[in-house]
Amino acid sequence: MTAALLPDGLSPAGATFLVVVSFFTSALTAAFALGGGVTLLAILSLFLPVQVLVPVHGVVQFASNFGRVLVQRRAVRWWVIGPFFVGAAIGAAIGARFVVALPEAVLDLTLGAFLLIVTFARLPKLAAIGPFGLALTGLATTFLSMFVGATGPINVAMFSKIFADRRSLVATLAAITAIQHALKVVAFFALGVALSRYAGLIGLLAASGFAGTLAGTHLLKRLDERIFRLVLTVILTVLAADLIRRGITGLW
């Protein structure tokens, strides 16, 4: 890997490691709908300056999710997207008026408890809630994300209970997440964030992520529905438990 493609301070060995990580985290998300984005962000934070960490991650995640939509487009429930984002826009508008700066420990506890409740609660299937229910889901999850700052796990926790088919769940969440990251990227560019020095790295991570999407999609097709649901529940439970742990530790 040539150093000319890399930003200052990032060695070819470090970039190679990030490319490998991008492959596996994208494969994880393509197979189980979550886990990859958070993992990639944590590892990127070890190599990139904090001022470009979230923008670079946002661009890479947009590319990863867009690629996942292309690969899994036949499984996307396109009619879900419109109602969900109508509600999401309303939820964001309401949340922006009431959001307050709460301690990080309280936010961690809130999100962790919410994920546990939704993961193990009985929720109606997708066909039962209809467009209006989807709009309410978008409103509620987006409003909550204004306070806890994490949309992905919230969306997965909710939609994993109302989607009966794992392929539709993963593909539709990819479409939703791609739109969210696209809006984030537009906002960063509007604020004047310059990522030209990171264009080569972003391209490498996006290409590796697409390869991971292909591998993860292949695994998704071969997975038994019960195994998929079990692994998804375990991931959500571990994530929730870690958030609660961090919240309790922060309060003490």
TrEMBL record:
One GO cellular component term: plasma membrane
Membrane topology: Multi-pass membrane protein
Key word Isomerase present: no
UniProtKB keywords: Cell membrane, Membrane, Transmembrane, Transmembrane helix, Transport
UniProt cross-references to InterPro entries, sorted A to Z: TM_pro_TauE-like, TSUP
Subcellular location: Cell membrane
Membrane spanning stretches: 12-34, 41-64, 76-99, 106-123, 129-148, 169-192, 198-220, 227-244
Family the entry assigns: Belongs to the 4-toluene sulfonate uptake permease (TSUP) (TC 2.A.102) family.
Protein name: Probable membrane transporter protein
UniProt organism field: Jiella avicenniae
